[in-house]
Amino acid sequence: MAKVEVTFEDGKITALKVDGKDRLKQDLIKAMNTTYWREWLPGVAVNPVSNASVKLTGLEMSIYWWCRLWYGRFSSGRTLEVPVKTYDWMKYLLLALNPNAYSKLLD
Length: 107
Known about the structure:
The chain is of the alpha+beta class and 107 residues long. The chain has 4 helices and 5 strands; from the N terminus they run βββαββααα. The strands form 2 sheets. Strands 1-2-3 form a 3-stranded antiparallel sheet. A two-stranded antiparallel sheet has the order 4-5. Helix 1 (24-32) crosses helix 3 (84-97) and helix 2 runs parallel beside helix 4. It starts with a strand and ends with a helix.
């Protein structure tokens, strides 16, 4: 498992390091510039397989749905806008922000 470090300032993420490498600008910006990214409000997300539900912040909900949409496109064989590596970093970000959500919704 990768070592994930998230730095917050005034409630906003200012740095994200995975295994010591800065990923915030590289992968989060790549993800946010895809058609899968949406700004979500806080709410409850439900795992469609297990029916487990988790309360998420708006950012966590946006990351969760981005991962779901990316994976749906991947599993259908359609062309991807970003590589698997970006999907992995987005999962790591959700893991760093909310380990419970990661384990109940994506893992």
